[in-house]
Amino acid sequence: MATELRWALIVISALIIGGLLIHGLWSVRKKEDKDGSRQDVPAPMDDVKTSEPELNDMSFTAVEEEPKATIEEPVLHDSDEEQQEASETNSASQPAPEPQDFIILHIQMPEGLTMAGSKLLPSVLSLGFKYSEEGFFNRHLESSGNGPVLFRLVNMYNPGTFDIDNMEQFSTAGVSLFMTLPCEGDSMAAFNMLHGAAKKLSDEFGAQVLDSAREPLTVDTIRAYVEKVREFAA
Question: How many distinct structural domains can be found in the chain?
């Protein structure tokens, strides 16, 4: 009986010792596994230091869209508008240059013949002349009647004017075209228009073009007129 009890205690002791050994080994293995697993786990984000790249270290090309060209109209302030209006008023109110000389061409009908007013009026109007309150026909810069007066057409005989309301009963032996110098605008262009109008009227009525001395117009006289115009245009 005592022998059996002793053997039972030995077996129990061996089992206890074996269990302790097994537990110890298991604890050690678990600890190693735990430590190893911790090495694989990334550190918290708070402990991770991040570094942003410096601009100097970055190489890039920035492509910007070219701005579209825009045309902006200038904004006129009150002062600018006043200055512009004043400038326009001054230019409009500037008097025409004082006449210093003149060029005149006469269109003379053959002896015994006259220009009928009923035919003269439409011819003059077709050349761009406009009737004025003074009783003359003026040729303005524009055929519509706008712009400065370049030259005039008058009656070659007294009183020198035309009665536009009685052109049907009117007749004359000749008319005169004249321009003053200096002339507003392009003087040479104005002279060419005057000379052209004289030729057209002379051809239409079978008349003769005369110079200021009432002598037949010659090439030399035309050249002299041209030189005179150029002197005032310079």
Answer: 1
Q: Which of 176, 178, 183, 177 is nearest to 230 (CA)?
A: 183
**In angstroms, rounded to a whole number, what is the distance separating the alpha carbons of residues 106 and 195?**
10
Residue 90 lies in a domain: no
Question: Which residue segment(s) compose the domain that 225 sits in?
Answer: 101-233
In a domain, 87, yes or no: no
Task: Give the tens place of pLDDT for each residue, 125-178.
Answer: 999 999 999 999 999 998 888 999 999 999 999 889 999 999 999 999 999 999
Amino acid code (one letter) for 180 = T
Q: What is the pTM of this model?
A: 0.59
Residue 224, CB half-sphere, CA atoms under 13 Å: how many? 10
The CATH number linked to 114 is 3.30.1400.10
- Residue 155's closest CA among 89, 106, 206, 209? 106
Reported in sequence order, the residue ranges of 80-120 that DSSP labels E, i.e. its strands, are: 101-108, 115-116
